[in-house]
Amino acid sequence: MCFFVYKLCKEIISDPKLSNCSEETKTLGKITRDQLCADLYAYYANTGIPDPDVRFGNLLLMIPALLEYARTSLENFRLVKFFDMMNYDKVLDDLYN
């Protein structure tokens, strides 16, 4: 899950140009990103959350921290696996590989 969130944020949200993708993928990524932002803002506005502008802005400000957390988690798992530091569930292999 952590790696999926990392990839989603990195490819769709944090890389506005989607530099490693084809033109069709760039177009779909931009549409998806814009729709995600519009839907999330509409959700905040329609549910009566106070100050939806501030809430949405704070959420966008959290993205770099989430990306860093995901990157660090992936690096930590690779270290654990490489040095065989502890026993872990094989589901993590599927998740991080």
Automatic annotation (TrEMBL):
It comes from the Eukaryota. Pfam families: Hormone_recep. Keywords: Receptor, Transcription, Transcription regulation. Residues 18-83 form the NR LBD domain. InterPro entries: NHR-like_dom_sf, Nucl_hrmn_rcpt_lig-bd. SUPFAM superfamilies: Nuclear receptor ligand-binding domain. This is NR LBD domain-containing protein. It comes from Plectus sambesii.
